[in-house]
Amino acid sequence: MRRSLSWLLACSATCCLFSVPANAQEVVSYVPKVGEFPPPNSGTYLAGELVVIDPVNRRGGLRLDGNGAGDRYNSGPLHYFAMLPYGTISFNGAPAELRDIPLGTHVHGYFYLPPVGEEATIPPLPKDLAKYEIKQNHAVSLEDDFSFYQRQGQSWKVVSLELMKGKINVAPSGQLAKDGINTTYTFDIDDSTTVWKGRKLVDLADITPDQIVQFNLGWSPGWRDKEFTVAEVWLDEESRNFATELQRRRHVKYQKQRWLPAWIDRVEDNDFGGGMVTLTLFGGMDPSLYADLKATQDKGFGVAAAEKTLRTWFHRGDKKIGQVIEWKESTNPPPGSSGIQIRLKFTELLDGYRPGRVVRVKCHDWIFVTMPPEERVKSVEDQQRSTIFSIP
């Protein structure tokens, strides 16, 4: 069987998955296993200000809400994290990349222990800071306030606005969120707050009692006491829909250029070259992207091997075209999965086509684009460097 030499350097450790816990207590001690997406409603909830990002490798650091044990706010470190390969990111109610979220934005996430073999991805804290360590540092999801509360059906009703005091009082409206803030609350607000109504910016004075709003929060001088500043607020449905649509367009463009991520479930090698590859597309993408693939499946898909960071080597050239043999969709897929499984036939298999490995899948009709060099993996040394997050 022939396998392309260009992908010999692209081999990486098997992609991680998670086993189902025996009971709820085990949620905080998941150990990654190959062959499964995580079960619903699992993971450790954490929230904080996004302070540091490595957008190319999908990693970052959070200043966690409040103070925590040992005077964490004043003396402790950020909580550094890595996105799992199938980890989803949302901003303004639409799919996103880390680079789309402005630094200083308050975000919510669900986190797991590091996958087996990836314990060093987030380096351990120095001994004098070890007491602050939170072992769950691989994220299955990350969302701004807008996305987090809107997804769960919670909005905010303005109770009062006290401009002289720089305070806004709100109460939750609709279905209460499981995590986060779901009670009446007072936030800081000032003339740096961005206020949207319709498709334009308006003044703070346009905020009036009884309005149903969504907002994004940011740092406040009282952060250690769980005080937050309203950084951006959307006063009506039109403004919220407009923000979501702008982010959706940004996301669709990004994915068409870099292709949809997936992992390989099975490989069936032929005796004399080629074979069958079954893969599952990751979830969290705009539905139009999956629809593009489904509508053009008779033309075949380009499939490029990738890293667990979702980076490719040179996916425009280092790919093979597979003929679609079977397209299957399941309902209610687990977190991280789109529920779409595809079986493809290849006349030649790349070395990166291995069970558990990450790949990128291209729709026939999407235009080929060469990615900037810093996004590509260019050598084994570059690949090895990318496995460890360089903490500031």
Walk me through this protein's architecture:
Keywords: Signal. Residues 1-24 form the signal peptide. The structure is a single chain. With 392 residues, this protein is mostly beta strands. It has three domains: 15-150, Copper binding periplasmic protein CusF (OB fold (Dihydrolipoamide Acetyltransferase, E2P)), CATH 2.40.50; 154-250, Beta Barrel (OB fold (Dihydrolipoamide Acetyltransferase, E2P)), CATH 2.40.50; 259-386, Elongation Factor Tu (Ef-tu), domain 3. It has five helices and 21 strands. It has helices at 72-75, 145-151, 237-258, 287-295, 380-386; strands at residues 3-4, 44-54, 59-64, 79-91, 94-95, 106-112, 138-144, 154-162, 167-174, 185-188, 194-197, 200-202, 212-218, 229-234, 260-269, 275-282, 301-306, 320-329, 337-346, 349-350, 358-362. A hairpin with a 2-residue loop joins strand 4 (79-91) and strand 5. The longest helix is centred in the middle third of the chain and has 22 residues, at 237-258. The radius of gyration is 22 Å and the shape is globular.
Question: Which key terms come to mind for this protein?
Answer:
21 strands, 392 residues, 3 domains, six-stranded antiparallel beta barrel, 12% helix, OB fold (Dihydrolipoamide Acetyltransferase, E2P), mainly beta, single chain, Elongation Factor Tu (Ef-tu), domain 3, globular, seven-stranded mixed β-sheet, signal
